[in-house]
Every structure is written in C-alpha cells, then in structure tokens.
Design goal:
237 residues; Rossmann fold; elongated; six-stranded parallel sheet; alpha/beta; 2 domains
Length: 237
Amino acid sequence: MVRAVLFDLDDTLFDHRGCSQDALHAARDCHVSLRAMPLADLERLHSTFLEQLHGDVMLGKVPLEDARHERFRRLLAAAGATPSEAVVSLTAAAYRDRYREVRRAVPGAVPLLAALAGRVRVGVVSNNLFDEQLDKLKLCGLEPFVHALIVSERVGVSKPDPAIFTAALEAVGCRANEAVMVGDSWIADIAGARAAGIRPVWFNPMELALPDGAEPVAQLRSLEPVNAVMRTLGIEG
C-alpha cells in the first residue's frame, strides 16, 4: 500500500526548464556576444555551467548570487566576450529577475498534489536550497499540499545518495516499501530511489530513451489527468 509519494521539484513539479529559457532571453539582450550565439548553444552552455556550480550551492558552500554571477561570467567568456564585472552583474540580474517573474508549476502539478494530499503523505526531495525551494512551492500554490520539504542543503548530501531519501522517509513517516518517488532525473531520482529501496516513477515528458542497460520503470509523460497519474503511482480510486 502506498502511504507516501515523494516528488522531485525542478522539472517535475516546477517548470525550471521553461522558466530558464524565458530568463535566458532576457540575459541575451544584455550583450551582443550572447545575441550572436545560437539559442540552442546558449541553453546548452548555460546548463553546463549551472551544473558545474550547482553542487556547492545546493550544499550551502557557495552563495547563490555568487554562483549566478560566476555562471554568467563563464557564459559571456564562452561567447567570446571580455565584459566588466558590472556587465556580468547586469546580465546575471536580468536572468534572475525574469526567472522570478515567470516562475510557474508544471501543468497539472497543483491539482495532482491537491488530490494526493488527502490520501497520502506528500514529500518533496530536492538538490537545492531550502528557502529557494520553499519560495517556489509557495508561489506556485503547491506548499499547502506538501507535508515535508527535504533539501540537500539541510541534509548535507544530495540525490542520488540514499541518505537523502532516508531522511525523506523519516519526514513523511513511512517505510521505503510504502513510498513512491517521482522525478525527471534518471540518475538522481530513479537510480537514487532504487538504491534506497523506493519504487521509482520516471517523469519523462520529453520521452527520453532509457539509459543503456537500465531496467524499465513506470513512466509519466504528463501530470494530467489526475486519475491516470494516481493509477500509475499505485493509488486507486
């Protein structure tokens, strides 16, 4: 019997990818070198630099604003620019401000959590900062339905380390075999949940192929309609 559903936040319940794309358009307007770069290349490089810096941010080792500034310094350099620190700051701020303006939930996330919250415990397990993720939950209307927010900053380890999933199980008050984990990252969410003994469900709206040699798991292409999603999670009626 499923007693708890754990969710990743970014690109599972919260539309980080879409918000980031919108924000990059704003950052692009700040410097001619970024406007000259094909958008697909800009997105790829931005994602690469984000991942390079995010580990220290999500463990609280580097302030978020400092990491964002460094991210755009690297991005401008990769585009062939030699900008002043003021220009780097302006570009980083343009991204930040636009990202905050367009923050939104993934379609179907709010009604799904509303339906689940009265039947099971709902936890969010995220590799990020607590205040940052709580702010997203509140802004998107998700926070009233979440019983526990577990983040790497506070636990001290990040997904796929089983320890963060163990912390999540303790927070929602159930055993591993009573929980389901839903997330978009194969390594962090699916492999991590499996290592912790939790049944995973892959949120895969982009219809990515399974990693080579990976054992198939249940998948969701969308968080809608609610009844279909709940059946996939093993929650009937």
